[in-house]
Design a protein that fits this description.
The protein has helices at residues 3-19, 29-34, 55-58, 78-91, 105-110, 120-134, 141-158; strands at residues 43-47, 66-70, 95-101, 171-177, 184-186. By secondary structure, it is an alpha/beta fold. It has a five-stranded mixed beta sheet, with helices on both faces. InterPro entries: Carbonic_anhydrase (IPR001765), Carbonic_anhydrase_CS (IPR015892), Carbonic_anhydrase_sf (IPR036874).
């Protein structure tokens, strides 16, 4: 499946979710049994760990369709990139979606620029460049920072050597999930 075809499936699933008419595809016992021999997800989704942001639900997808990495603030480190590289190199997945969301607590914790302490600071420090860029824009600072963070993480993934930057047919897109409506806007 091409990245364009994969993105279209995500958009169609999100439209069903927003309309309140999800199909819950590929969730049967037979599907689960079919997947015991392997997987071939059509999209990778890097999203926030926020409990309100469940990619399989908001894109109305089932078992084996999405390769999901979730971490607060949808930030990347070697572990997240390695997971994504695995899906691209070994599962032949052609689409990566970096999904930020409305009212993100990790991005919100980054707005002040103060170190929140403990390991949380390792997350907020990665979001600081997006906050700095968002401060130069008109509009809501948190919303702009969430969108900038998703875009910057997407750009970093697209440029990541050696696998992602050179993978044939791979596309990276960023999105913004609206908790209030269920809609995903691709940026």
């Amino acid at each position: 499946m091409t990245a364009k075809e994969a993105l279209e499936l995500l958009k169609e699933g999100n439209a069903r979710y927003v309309a309140g008419t999800p199909e819950h595809p590929n969730t049967s016992v037979a599907r689960r049994n079919d997947l015991t021999n392997g997987q071939s997800p059509f999209a990778i989704v890097l999203s926030c760990a926020d409990s309100r942001v469940a990619p399989e639900l908001l894109f109305d997808r089932g078992l084996g369709e999405l390769f999901v990495i979730r971490v607060a603030g949808n930030v990347i480190d070697d572990h997240a990139i390695g997971s994504i590289e695995y899906a691209v190199a070994h599962l032949n997945t052609k689409l990566i979606v970096v999904l930020g969301h409305e009212s993100c607590g990790a991005v919100g914790a980054s707005l002040s620029g103060e170190d929140p302490g403990a390991h949380i600071g390792s997350i907020t420090s990665k979001i600081q460049p997006a906050v700095a860029k968002a401060k130069t824009q008109e509009g809501d600072l948190l919303t702009n920072a969430v969108k900038e963070n998703a875009k910057m993480v997407g750009e970093a993934l697209a440029a990541s050597e050696p696998i992602l930057a050179t993978a044939e047919g791979l596309e990276v897109v960023s999105g913004y999930y609206k908790l209030s409506t269920g809609e995903v806007d691709f940026l």
